[in-house]
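Risk mitigation, structural track. In case the binding assays with pyridoxal-5'-phosphate fail to produce interpretable data, a predicted complex structure has been prepared as a fallback.
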Amino acid sequence: MAVINENFLKLPSNYLFPEINRRVSDFRAENPGAEVISLGLGDVTRPLTPAIVEAMQKAVRGMSRQETFFGYGPPQGYDFLANTILENEYLNRGIKFSRDEIFISDGAKCDVTNIQEIFGQNNIVAVTDPYFPLYVDSNVMAGRTGLVNKNGQYEKMVYLPCSVENSFVPELPQSKVDLIYLCFPNNPTGIVLAKSELKRWIDFAKKNKAIILFDAAYEAYIREPDIPHSIYEIDGAKEVAIEIRSFSKTAGFTGLRCGYTIIPKQLVAFKTTGEKIEVNPIWYRRQTTKFNGASYITQVGAAAVYTEEGKKQSREIIDRYMENAYHIRKHLTKLGYSVYGGSNAPYLWMKTPDGKSSWEYFDFLLNRANLVCTPGAGFGSQGEGYVRLSTFTSPTDVNEAMKRFAKL
Ligand code: PLP
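Fallback model:
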């Protein structure tokens, strides 16, 4: 008898985005003439830059010739990309890593969900609430939680509320935790942490022998000079943090797929006996068994992000998204809405007016203004009463959306 992994049965089946798509397609079917504008997208809308495309075209042509054909690549990525990232993202900020401390992957989603696998079953996991759902779901699948309660929270999981009361900055845990997911700039709130705030987390992790899993998928959107782009900008982070990044939102790789994870050599976890174990070789062992590397062509494209032209072109796209953020925030604030984030992130976090629930407001916006947002309740119990607005759209659509808000 083949027995199923019953942990999967703990997960609710109505995942956020399919439900949004269902409601939007029902609405379109009933209102064929309606011009629906989406401020709900978590996917980029601008195409790849010429620097990336040209580099990949050259790589494709190379693959057609015997002498420049590449088969299986190294599971931890090609040196040319790894070294380029280390130089441009870390050494530039005075942070040194050796080649074997970085692992190239096919995107942050796999790393963010697979990383828990190398840690023991009994670790207590903490997430900030609202949270990116993959952090919770991957630990539920792995059996690290109990059942879900009526608020959508799992037994044994520690939720750190981020609300207007604490300016959406999580407080340190009051109970024992071993693995802590932090995501800054945050999806969905768009909030960032200052160096001093991150330092508190590093000190906490050191004191409690915990490990921080730092998701920096949106670091390229940081605009304020004092906000750290990497957790390793803070002293001591190499001993307690893993950083995960992605080319998805930095350079439009959501379809191509490329990301990377840094696991410093200093980082240790423990055996149940208390003996220290280096984490880096364990992840290396995991990756070489279960992953065959991102495609050569994609990695050539990712390396092109760091050429002079590549940097300039990617920067222009991000600037465009951030101009959208600026306009949305300015207009909605002027109209009296409470809007947060959006200064160092492509997302804004808006309080629903008149005490509406997230889904009530989603339906209201769709029906009254033909606008799509993302209900905050889909990101955890603290997201109830909020919606996430995304800036991955055109300035024309932003202008039109703001006019519709003004008429509500
Ligand atoms: N982490 C966060 C916070 C995200 O928002 C996303 C994608 O939306 C990811 C990770 C996954 O990124 P990728 O496309 O690299 O898998």
